[in-house]
Specification:
The protein has 4 helices and 2 strands. The chain is mainly α. The chain has one domain. The chain starts with a helix and ends with a helix.
Length: 118
Amino acid sequence: MFQAFWAVLAPVGYLRRGRPYQTEIDDVYARPGFPLNVGWLWPPKYTPERPAALAVLHEMMAAEHGRVRRFYAGKDARVLGNTRLYDPAIGCLNMIQALRVGAHHDEHHFVTIRRILG
């Protein structure tokens, strides 16, 4: 999905690359009132009733992280920092902050799985 945003928004980020930008963002998943119950919109492929082997989950996550790594590799941080996105639940953020939100998202899922297994 970022590929499409990048193709459209990167020229603006390139023009703004000399401006300051934020790199940090709080853990949006820990915000009070942040909508976490959106599984009905995007139902998970695997559930406790329909489990997956740990190796399958690990392979899928490694593949996803590889796609993210390839997307960000070689891109100028100044352009990424000035390429802005809008998320209705999070607000305005740049591509660097979006990467951090992705890390928080993964951690949120790890915590959920630990809770289910614990």
